[in-house]
Amino acid sequence: MTRDPVALALASLAAAASAGAAVITGGLLALRIAFGTPPPEASAHVVLPVSLFIGIVVAAVAGWLLARAIPDLFYRGLIAALGVFGALLLAALAAPADALGRRLGLAMYLVLLVTLGVLAMRKARAAAAA
């Protein structure tokens, strides 16, 4: 067991939420770059749900795997579920970034999410190793 399970849980949650939101935001950015603003209806009906589903899966798997040093499966599942919820909340913030900055705003928000996700993932691994 880790020395500080709370730090591990919070860092795993932050990394999972950031990773899932980055995938969803990346899908929206790819849609904007490929098809312009506003996108055609047919392409939006395929790209957005697929990126949303993949982002949810990434958030759940990242939360579960990063918290594997926690022996209780209930708490690991809770971290994964909260990671999904956090990813959806962070992905919702892509709408103001898209409205204010269009493609550049989405790209900057995506870079911010990836940076925060990498930092949280490093913190989670350090907390798991301690």
Describe this structure in words.
- The protein is mainly α and 130 residues long.
- Helices cover 87% and strands 0% of the residues.
- It has helices spanning 5-35, 41-66, 73-92, 94-129.
- The mean pLDDT is 88.
Please describe the topology of this protein.
Layout: H1 5-35, H2 41-66, H3 73-92, H4 94-129
Helix pairs in contact: 1-2, 1-3, 1-4, 2-3
Features:
130 residues; mainly alpha; 87% helix; elongated
Q: Which class of secondary structure composition applies to the elements?
A: mainly alpha
Distance between the termini: 9 Å
Average residue pLDDT: 88
Shape: elongated
**Share in helix:** over 70%
Our estimate of the beta-strand percent is: under 5%
Order of helices and strands: HHHH
| Count of β-strands | 0
Radius of gyration: 16 Å
Number of helices: 4
Point out poorly predicted stretches.
Answer: none
Largest sheet: none
What kind of assembly state do the chains in view correspond to?
A: single chain
